[in-house]
Design goal:
Layout (H helix, E strand, L loop, with lengths): L1 E6 L4 E8 L3 E9 L1 H5 L6 H22 L7 E9 L3 H18 L3 E5 H12 L6 E6 L4 E7 L3 E7 L5 H11 L7 H7 L25 H12 L4 H13 L5 H6 L3 H28 L4 E5 L6 H8 L7 E2 L3 H4 L4 H13 L17
Parallel strand pairs: 1-4, 4-5, 6-9, 9-10
Antiparallel strand pairs: 1-2, 2-3, 6-7, 7-8
Length: 354
């Protein structure tokens, strides 16, 4: 049973065809990174306009690469939330139009559930499991049970982890998105050089907080005159939109490399410490780590060095960031259960997963 998946929750227009929930026949992603980089973050109105331009050719290409026609599809799945409401509307409305015109069932999918299924696309996972979804917009811990029922057991109270990475990167002149550059340069710094305080949460101790850590990096920069150093990085970025590691290192002194390494180490420790406690609390048989920050090489290495009594599953990098294959995969169990979505369903910017 083939499902066409459509994802447009933020700044990437994606379409994919997945067979029987596990076999990816095509996966096409049109990135808007260049559009938003100049503004230092995603501009919602621009994102919506870019989705409008890209949605038709992206879906057409996904069907072509899968050697599929609409008559081969058992369902059309689209992200219904959470995300930027204008962006969500483009993908969802297009999916509704296809569903109506072609007489193909429509399935609305929660974006976060898609990230959980991204890991399952690569390998079978035993349940119960804990899923750590960590990206620029989300930092959540879920209990995942057989039949794909979910219970939220922890979430960020302020910034998402990926958002903290990007804000620190922007603060230090590394541009947007800053997370990949921090990961690129962290191995060249001393992760113990700067002592950042771990967050102590009142109430639910499995919740996260990264605003204090981000502020600590700001205070570190304010205590030093980094004007010339930061300007040099901005000029490098203006001359070369994608500087090499060596080029970044030439304009990044050792002290700044050390703070990058220390910041990344602290974020990783916060994420894995709570994920391990959550897994122990439910006697989990697996830990899933997904979302854009799951591409972080430091996080992947640290998770695999924990020697936990259960396996840790990461999606491949291409499935960690926003994509439509994960949306189609998450729709497959719903298709088997006959859980279809009405044309009256609205995009929900703050949709929860339960």
């Amino acid at each position: 049973m083939r499902i066409l998946g459509i994802e447009s929750s933020c700044d990437e227009t994606a379409a994919a065809v997945v067979d029987d929930g596990v076999s990816i026949l095509s996966s096409v992603v049109a990135s808007q990174l260049a559009t938003h980089a100049r503004y230092g973050g995603v501009v919602p109105e621009l994102a919506s306009r870019e989705h409008l331009r890209a949605i038709v050719p992206v879906v057409r290409l996904a069907l072509d690469e899968a050697k599929s026609s609409y008559s081969d599809l058992s369902a059309i799945a689209a992200t219904i939330g959470p995300g930027l409401v204008g962006s969500l509307l483009v993908g969802l409305t297009f999916a509704k139009s296809l569903s109506f015109a072609r007489g193909i069932p429509l399935i609305g999918v929660n974006h976060i559930e898609g990230h959980i299924h991204a890991a399952i696309l690569d390998a079978p996972v035993e349940f119960p499991a804990v899923a750590l979804i960590v990206s620029g917009g989300h930092t959540h811990l879920f209990e995942v049970n057989p039949g794909f029922s979910y219970r939220l057991i922890g979430k960020t109270r302020d910034d998402a982890a990926g958002e903290a990475f990007d804000k620190v990167g922007k603060l230090l002149g590394f541009g947007y998105p800053g997370g990949p550059v921090i990961d690129q340069l962290a191995p060249y710094g001393n992760p113990s050089a700067v002592k950042f305080t771990l967050a102590k949460m009142k109430g639910n101790t499995l919740d996260f907080s990264f605003s204090g850590l981000k502020t600590a990096v700001l205070r570190w920069t304010q205590a030093r005159d980094l004007t010339a150093e930061t300007q040099a990085r901005k000029e490098l970025l203006a001359a070369h939109p994608q500087p090499s590691t060596d080029e970044w290192l030439t304009v990044t002194p050792q002290t700044t490399r050390d703070v990058l390494a220390s910041f990344q180490r602290t974020v990783i420790e916060e994420l894995l410490r709570r994920a391990a406690v959550a897994a122990e609390s439910i006697a989990a048989r697996a830990l899933i780590i997904s979302g854009g920050v799951a591409c972080n090489s430091g996080l992947r290495t640290a998770a695999r060095n924990l020697h936990l009594p259960y396996p840790v599953y990461f999606p491949s990098p291409g499935l960690s960031t926003d994509n439509a294959a994960m949306i189609a995969a998450a729709a497959f169990p719903k298709l088997k259960r006959g859980e279809f979505t009405s044309f009256n369903a609205a995009a929900s910017a703050n949709l929860t997963l339960a």
